[in-house]
Amino acid sequence: MLRRTGSLRASGPCGAGTGSVMTDEASTNGTTRSDPTTGPTTGPTTGPTTGPTTGPTTGPTTGMTTGMTALGGTPRPLALVTGASSGIGTELAAQLAQRGFDLVVTAEDDTLAVVAEALRADGCDVRAVQVDLRTADGVAQLWDVVTGTGRPLEVVALNAGVGLGGAFLDTDVEDEVAMVQLNVVSTLRLAKPVVRSMAARGAGMVLVTSSIASTMPGSFQSVYNATKSFLQSWTEALQEELAGTGVTMTALMPGPTETNFFVRAGMEGTRVGQADKDDPADVARQGLDALLDGKAKVLASSRSTKLQGVLSAVLPDSVKAKVHRRVAEPGQGV
Predict the structure, then answer these.
(1) Is the backbone of residue 244 left (phi > 0), alpha (psi -120 to 50) or beta?
(2) How many whole angstroms separate alpha carbon 141 and alpha carbon 133?
């Protein structure tokens, strides 16, 4: 397995030897669905405004390169990153590229093409797949691109997600259903073939972007926190199920992170929305380090986030719910 090899930690470009770039761009519907900026008080990136979309109408947008080997002819490992168009997802993709991986990256929005071109500039083979993962068809189209490479996935970062703040009495149920579809259902749909293929060959690493929010009742982020609690519990259960298969699962649990999550989630007027936040590059680095070391989970990235994780383990849920209300209730910003 690749998990603890030094080569995966090495910085620098992926290497030379990339082939020609072929781009077949198609448009998709709906708002951006990219990475989660998590936190007790944080989380993925946006609350949908109109409910689930029907997905792309013309198939996935893919940007493909043909080179598959680094200098000296050694095949580079392949990684998949979802929610790669911004925030933590972009950083995960960039840092995997620096560690020597070729990439399949996906998101719903057009920014993905810009991210993919920047990754190719470092000499990586990149396939950019623009699809709506909230739909079964979007997940199937992404998996078709992965299998079409003819290469095994060494690393998968299941990072796509959205967030939504506000009182449950006021939020739109269609927005919340759309969030569940992306944060939970799409993760399950994609993880099934990913984990089965890894187990069949006895090797693979999966990073799941959970959240410190998974450890507490999320007053004024009730559905978002619940989606992250699901992912955390599910990841920990699979860690036990997959013991001895050669497949590892690691939960990345960020706190409030400096991405566009809070604007998209409508949380600019909250205390957490206006507070200092962690650097997504640091969050991604700590997540990948934990993944490659085979750790079960990592609280990322600042001391305050790690302290919050410690306190969450001992405080009663009723107390945590009150604390969460103080930082996430609309109109309570400092």
Answers:
(1) left
(2) 9
CA angle 262–313–290, rounded 5-degree value: 70
Q: Which of 101, 143, 224, 261 is catalytic?
A: 224
Domain residue spans in the chain? 25-50+59-328
Cross-strand partners of 327: none
Other Cβ atoms within 10 Å of 230 Cβ, number: 17
- The label of the residue with tokens 């978002």 reads 224
Distance CA 248, CA 154 (A): 11
d(CA 33, CA 134): 9
Residue 14 forms beta bridges with which residues?
none
Cβ atoms 256, 213 nearer than 8 A: no
Question: What CATH class is the domain 25-50+59-328?
Answer: alpha beta
pLDDT tens profile 218-235: 999 999 999 999 999 999
Q: Is 110 helix (H, G, I), strand (E, B) or coil?
A: coil
pLDDT tens for each residue of 286-309? 999 999 999 999 998 788 788 888
Answer yes or no: are the C-beta atoms of 273 and 264 closer than 8 Å: no
| Residues composing the chain | 334
Phi (first) and psi of residue 183, to 5 degrees: -65, -35
Active site residue 224: yes
DSSP letter, residue 278 = B
Residue in the block written with tokens 């969030």: 179
